[in-house]
Design a protein that fits this description.
33% of the residues lie in helices and 24% in strands. By secondary structure, it is an alpha/beta fold. The N terminus is likely disordered.
């Protein structure tokens, strides 16, 4: 009789995991930390993330596809906000696991209103309590965990600090058991489903947030109008032209700055970020265009990639 074979490898697992929650809770920070590369842009301003972005983490026995989403919010006065919210809510469907993220300040009426979208989905949910490093009194964490357990049947509740998450393998171990068995869906070396062109536009938009802060009009978008590789001395050089869309002439003045100073700084910092991300020399030219009401125009929103099919 043959001895029992204990050498069978663990079954491979593959699945989609949505990162959901209100704006500014650290979803994009966590995604970048897990993947180990800058996939999703970050700023202190709410609603920095406007698109659904996948970050892919591949291990020998599992492949995780994290879906970073815009923060779910209640302000739907503008068509842009409605489209962004629709993207966030639709990302809760047809996935294997939802990570709903709140910060350590706890629940409030607005947060519970956001969570109602998750309650209506028949998908396992893990609660992530982020920014626990900012808690002066760590004893406040246990009441928050108990309150959360009483309000919903979370599969797990995991306190984290997304900005300093050191033990990524242990974190992934908490998730992998919730994924179905299956082969990987993406090549081992792929880290996102988004194109270089998209990443370049997002890195430019990030620099406008970082440089201008609250001065920056919310209704501002970036459109790449030229994206062309050329060779010089057998080295690739990427030429990018990008247009920054705003709604009012006064907003254009803010983005350009006195004598073009702000736009020049945005371009310099964005160029360095794109060069770092893509590993090649970049020539970047920025333009600012005023188009009144673009954030309400469905066809313009679609041309800018905000209306997903």
């Amino acid at each position: 009789m043959k001895a029992h074979d204990n050498t069978n490898p663990k079954p491979h697992r593959f699945g989609f995991i949505t990162l959901a929650g209100p704006p500014n809770t650290g979803k994009s920070t966590l995604l970048n930390r897990i993947v180990g590369e800058k996939i999703s842009i970050i700023s202190r301003r709410p609603q920095t993330t406007r698109h659904r972005i996948c970050g892919i983490k591949t291990l020998p026995d599992a492949q995780f596809v994290f879906v970073d989403t815009p923060g779910i919010h209640s302000d739907e006065k503008k068509n842009l906000n409605r489209v962004i919210n629709k993207t966030a809510v639709s990302s809760l469907n047809d996935v294997d696991l939802i990570l709903f993220m709140i910060d350590a300040k706890g629940w409030n009426a607005q947060l519970e209103k956001t969570f109602k979208h998750v309650r209506n989905v028949n998908t396992p949910v893990i609660l992530l309590i982020n920014k626990v490093d900012q808690l002066k009194d760590k004893s406040m964490l246990l009441p928050l965990i108990n309150e959360s357990m009483a309000m919903f049947n979370f599969k797990e509740i995991i306190p984290i600090s997304a900005i300093s998450l050191d033990d990524v393998p242990n974190f992934l171990d908490s998730l992998v058991k919730h994924l179905p068995e299956g082969p990987p869906g993406f090549p081992d070396d792929q880290v996102t489903d988004r194109s270089e062109r998209f990443l370049a536009s997002e890195l430019i938009r990030e620099q406008t947030f970082l440089r201008l802060g609250q001065e920056l009009p919310y209704s501002m978008a970036v459109q790449i109008t030229k994206y062309e590789y050329k060779k010089k001395h057998d080295r690739p050089i990427l030429h990018i032209d990008a247009t920054l869309w705003v709604e009012k002439p006064g907003q254009k003045s803010i983005v350009i700055g006195k004598g073009g100073s702000q736009l020049k700084l945005i371009g310099q910092h964005a160029r360095r970020q794109v060069e770092h991300a893509l590993g090649c020399q970049v020539f970047l030219t920025l333009w600012v265009k005023v188009t009144k009401g673009w954030a309400e125009n469905a066809s313009l929103l679609q041309s800018l990639g905000y209306c997903e099919t």
